[in-house]
Amino acid sequence: MKSIKEISARLKIAKKNISVDEQKEVGSNAASLGKALKISTELVASVVVGSTIGFLLDSWFDTKPLLIICFFFMGVAAGILNVFRSAKKMHKKL
Amino acid sequence: MALNPMHQFEIYKIGPEINLGNINLSFTNASLFMTISALLILSLLFLGTKKKTLIPSKIQLITEMSYTFVAKMLNDTAGSSAKSFFPFIFTLFMFILFCNMVGMLPYSFTVTSHIIVTFVLAAIIFIGVTILGFVKHGIKYLQLFVPKGVPIVLLPLIIIIEIISYLSRPVSLSVRLFANMMAGHTMLKVFGGFVISLGLLGGWLPLGFSVALTGLEILVAFLQAYVFAILTCIYLNDALNLNH
Lengths: 94, 244
Fold this sequence. Notes:
The complex is a heterodimer.
Chain A: H1 2-17, H2 20-61, H3 64-93
Helix pairs in contact in A: 2-3
Chain B: E1 19-20, E2 23-24, H1 29-50, H2 58-78, H3 86-103, H4 115-137, H5 155-202, H6 204-241
Antiparallel strand pairs in B: 1-2
Helix pairs in contact in B: 1-2, 1-3, 2-3, 2-6, 3-6, 4-5, 4-6, 5-6
């Protein structure tokens, strides 16, 4: 029993010594780096997926350049939508 | 050969060639390092939970911290209804983290720097989450593709865009992890090559860069495992709670 009390007292002192601000800053730095990497790939992936769908549909229906152009732009739109959404989510969390 | 920065990603057989029908099932260096990572996780968890004390030992502390870290992440992003998926998320996070970290050791091989590994992981998540959504909500899950408050004229276009955005999830998930790991390791090797080719005279600057990059790479290795796990949680949340 005594040892637990001693430990809790030592824990309190140790917690005081940790500067809270410093800890927070490191965490948020890593998190923002993660967010930046996340958003950049989201934009690119949608464009790639859109173009691939366009290409596949083109070779299916034999309408060579038409659908890939359409789906490329839709992929860009989807990418921007994705980025917009994750930015909104981040804003909510802040 | 040793100076080629892409040489480290080469896959080769270890032991005899095993063929099952048309599928080549030989044990490669990739399988070896996956096994090593899995064994490391198992031994960490086994040692950490073997002797449970009120005042945790260091190894018990690491185990408990990783548990609370993942549990908190899952609870914050996907809510309490996703509690039953904790084992999956924990396994995923630990596996990617250990694969990345084992890859940081000299003479080792980074499993996650191969797109097929990360893409299979992402595809399992994508298919699993989609099936889960349909099981949980039935045909209503398709509401995910129809945002509220869109005029009917624009609806066909929006639905296609939403489907593309949904299909891009596994691609962005896998490419992010693969690209980060591969780019980081290539860069390390390039700077390492500079050290050798510049010799004793000019090699100190790239050596310093290599040391700094190693630190950055360890951060990235952790961060990518974290991002992969947290995005899985977000997708789970979409499937379970269906609110856009």
